[in-house]
Amino acid sequence: MTNRTRFAAQLFAMATLAAASIPATHAADNTRFVSTTGKNSNNCTLAAPCRSLQHGIDVTPAGGELRILDSGFYGANAVIRKSLSVIGNGHTVYLNRPIVINDAGAEVALRSLVLNGQGTANDGIRIADASAVHIERSVIYRFTRHGIFAPASNLDLFVLDTVVRDNGSNGLITAGNGSVRLTIDNSRFTNNGGAGVSLAKGHNTIHRSTLSGNERGLSATGCNVTIMSTVASQNATFGFVMRSGAVVAIDSSVTSGNVQAGIRLEGGTVRLSNSTVTRNGTGVDNLSGALFESRVNNTIRGNNADVGGNRTPFTGL
Amino acid sequence: MSALRSFFFTLALTANAAMAASAAQAADVIRHVSTTGKNSNACTLTAPCRTLQRAINLAPTGGEVRILDSGFYGNNATIRKSLTITGNGFTVMLDSPIVVNDAGAVVTLRGLMLDGQGAVTTGIRVDAAAAVHVERCVVQGFSGVGIAATAQGVGLFVVNTISRDNGGSGVSTNAVRLTVDNSRFENNGQSGITVLSSEATIRRSLASGNGTSGIIALLSFAEIASTSAVHNGSAGFSAQSSTMTIDSSAASGNDAGPRLDSAAIARISNSTFTRNATGISNGGGGLVETRANNTVRGNTTEVTGTLTPIGAL
User: If you count residue pairs, one on A and one on B, with CB atoms under 8 Å apart, how many are there?
Assistant: First the structure.
């Protein structure tokens, strides 16, 4: 063999090896694609995407990922019954019905989706059953009812970097009977016809978020809520309204410009620290039977009435 | 000339042309990979390579590899030089971790979605480096740790990143200087973050729904600010033989807020611990210094062990 042919043979061997390292169908290649120009008879590859979101969901292996390639109408339904990531890459997805998640063990991520109900579809995302759901970097708007409706029990729901606005009823509502755990971070719930966030069960955390311009910012009944570094402002009735059985801690937050009250206690307990309550009808409106505990380091000032009802001071440790 | 020889003659010409181009344009240090690429390509935008490893190898030191679409990018991806990998939000699936292994390297991983699909142990593994930046990444579905760094003295910077649904911890370090900002560690089987023999600064972040503790410091120094540790199976903040500072932070829905062992120190100010089984758990006999401005309220047991008040200066 001459040097040159030996070199060629080596090159050829390398090329063969390189080709062999990527088999045509690899076990880990669980990414599927949908496009408004796709066909459901396709294999849902990048080069040959499918057409409907439901078909894309159906052909994506459990634990795999479905990517949206452009904006438009993606079919009547989208029901997810397994662990899956749906990645929108900022594109808008129109459907006739909600994206429904309904599988007890599923871990589902919905990321970078824009969901527009166009004032005709009822809910944006409905979580009937799941182990964990992550909603990230998404915009959910103009649904006639709820942006995110989570009647599931035993659910871990994470809402991050998401905007839920302009929906007819609640931005987000949980209603499960079991131990729901909700974590909201860096998200906005604005201009919804009902509550920005409506909670009735479980343990909930709202961190670095905005509840503004809704009928009410947050309503909580029979659940625990921890609120940090959050703003509830310019809501038509209340910034925060607590009813029977709600135990809510509010820290480093601002409640302002809410027409009736910044914080309204119709029941339950509120513990307020490091926070400002200003320019509301009543700053903190504590009806009889509820408990308003203050760390005595809050600025409750410049409301029509600053505090209605009892205020119970407590000491920091 | 045989057909084979003619083919390789053409290849050689192409290689020469590519070299000429790179010689003429010294600043063109970007290489591209695509699921439709070929490793025989020169990793240009119009002729991208196929595997991440091939593009890493071809990128010059200090250069950049850009991912052009989502999918499977090969068995391995080991980085042995300073390099930036930019994912532009696309998902990269591999059969093994992205490994950084060069003591002097400064490596940036940006805009990558890494999905282990439960089959791969680790998302990002730093065996040796000078500094590693993980920015705007999502690291999910690995059977072990999402981001692991065991390189002595490395600076690991985790910014705007989510590490979730991994079987082990979201982040685990050993002998590392760790900085975390605006990042989330959710639903991992073990902790959100565990630092061992490390220095850690964690700010504006969230550790939620993890199997063990939100943030664990072992033989470490950890400064934690504006961070929430919630809904974790064990403590929100666990200090073991460590010094931990917690400011303007919250822990709720955990087995404990901060928890110390006998050799730990915690300095706590402006923070809220509520609806944990224990608000501040110092039954082990560590030193808890509080600024007397924390809201420790509404826990099943507010405090176990001794608190030592400190004055503001």
Answer: 184
